[in-house]
Design a protein that fits this description.
41% of the residues lie in helices and 30% in strands. It has helices spanning 3-31, 58-68, and strands spanning 34-40, 46-53, 74-80, 84-90. The longest helix has 29 residues, at 3-31.
Length: 98
Amino acid sequence: MTNRETRYSNARPSDRLKKRWMLVLAAVLASACTTTQEIRRPNGVREFVIACGASLGWNICYDEANQVCPTGYTTLSEDAGFNRKELRIACPSAKPKP
């Protein structure tokens, strides 16, 4: 084996490792691109708007909805735009805070 072949064969495992770390980092950053906003209606009902990145699947929004409303929720609307997805929900047990 020449020095050139040795150099390239030694670099490949580190390139694979680097690519794996980049994929893991991208997945972590993508999952972090979810925001939740609470909306209080005049009648005291609390709703939540969950915004997720457009490149993310709806399952990311649904996972966040399950965290916001662990006992279940009602989907009020779903909207997918160019740069984000938006899920509006209400928790049946979300009573107005005094």
